[in-house]
Amino acid sequence: MPPRKKRRPSAGDDMSAKKSRQDSVFRKHETSQIREEETFSSKRCLEWFYEYAGCDDVVGPEGMEKFCEDIGVEPENVVMLVLAWKLDAQSMGYFTLQEWLRGMGSLQCDSTERLRNSLDYLRSVLNDSTSFKLIYRYAFDFAREKDQRSLDLNTAKCMLGLLLGKTWPLFPVFNQFLEQSKYKVINKDQWCNVLEFSRTINLDLSNYDEDGAWPVLLDEFVEWYKERQMS
């Protein structure tokens, strides 16, 4: 058989090849742009920090107020506690430069918009029981005065309300008990046991072992609550 003649490229083929090359270049440029937008920038994160810190190396109460306003979250919202935990912030109402860069870097957030987009993720962290326990323990040290070993009662009630108010049905009565009790402070052992109590003890307290290793605070709460139920 005679060899087939090679078809001469037509003008349409040239246009098609040219368009294909243009599409390829455009896709590369588009991918490059997306990659650039997705890349965390330490420089951008630093500039973002100083929007709230001013000339200092720490975001204080005023800057924190503006920061909360910008991300659309009330300062008392539990998501702010989760964010503080992610930053490993040491003092309530303050973010240091080091805490900010390390924490926002781990979250890959270098702008208000990026953090706003991460708020649902931060809220979802509370649904993981292991992470919740870590945040709960962190909250005690975060909220206490640094020269005190215990948490004053009013602060403890606020933090307990923030962490357990919506998930522990007995919280309102426990809160009432604290208000009328002799306690002025809550120590860390009591704090940690309240979480354990809320997770393991039935709402009717039927499985509470008075001879167990619970702190006296919880023995007194159980006794007080049962007396109320009988009266």
Automatic annotation (TrEMBL):
<dbReference type="GO" id="GO:0032182">
    <property type="term" value="F:ubiquitin-like protein binding"/>
</dbReference>
<dbReference type="GO" id="GO:0000151">
    <property type="term" value="C:ubiquitin ligase complex"/>
</dbReference>
<dbReference type="GO" id="GO:0005634">
    <property type="term" value="C:nucleus"/>
</dbReference>
<protein>
    <recommendedName>
        <fullName>DCN1-like protein</fullName>
    </recommendedName>
</protein>
<dbReference type="InterPro" id="IPR042460">
    <property type="entry name" value="DCN1-like_PONY"/>
</dbReference>
<feature type="compositionally biased region" description="Basic and acidic residues">
    <location>
        <begin position="15"/>
        <end position="29"/>
    </location>
</feature>
<feature type="domain" description="DCUN1">
    <location>
        <begin position="40"/>
        <end position="226"/>
    </location>
</feature>
<dbReference type="GO" id="GO:0045116">
    <property type="term" value="P:protein neddylation"/>
</dbReference>
<keyword id="KW-0539">Nucleus</keyword>
<dbReference type="Pfam" id="PF03556">
    <property type="entry name" value="Cullin_binding"/>
</dbReference>
<dbReference type="InterPro" id="IPR014764">
    <property type="entry name" value="DCN-prot"/>
</dbReference>
<dbReference type="InterPro" id="IPR005176">
    <property type="entry name" value="PONY_dom"/>
</dbReference>
<dbReference type="GO" id="GO:0097602">
    <property type="term" value="F:cullin family protein binding"/>
</dbReference>
<feature type="region of interest" description="Disordered">
    <location>
        <begin position="1"/>
        <end position="29"/>
    </location>
</feature>
<dbReference type="GO" id="GO:0031624">
    <property type="term" value="F:ubiquitin conjugating enzyme binding"/>
</dbReference>
